[in-house]
Design brief:
- This protein is mainly α and 126 residues long.
- It contains seven helices and no strands.
- The protein has one domain: Globin-like, CATH 1.10.490.
- Helix content is 65%, strand content 0%.
- The chain is globular.
- The termini are far apart.
- 19% of the residues are buried.
- It comes from Salicibibacter halophilus.
- Pfam families: Bac_globin (PF01152).
- Its cofactor is heme.
Amino acid sequence: MRYLEETLYDALGGERAIATIVEQFYDRVSKHPELMPIFPDDLTETRRKQKQFLTQFCGGPALFTREHGHPRLRARHLPFPITHVKAQAWLDCMGRALQASELENEKAVQELYQRLTLTAHHMINT
């Protein structure tokens, strides 16, 4: 039985789903010509933080805040030139990652993508 209190994190499939999404996403980012220049060569720590952030963003445990404080996404990303083109490239990588993750709850996947679309557009600073 499903409860009304189910979070997006739960609907997606919890920790395993978030880990799959992040791995699929950064596999694409690491090869994308628009995104490679703004990410470090070693994405290990970036992947770990993204897992923490997405867990929290989707209503799971507040892993990111516990370790790093409030996400302050826009402020944390101001040092990086984020254009409309880069935001769209990021969303394209995420869209492909979500498809490749083969998660069962398509409605939850669509909701996550919609939330991330709003976030990506908010991050544009150039």
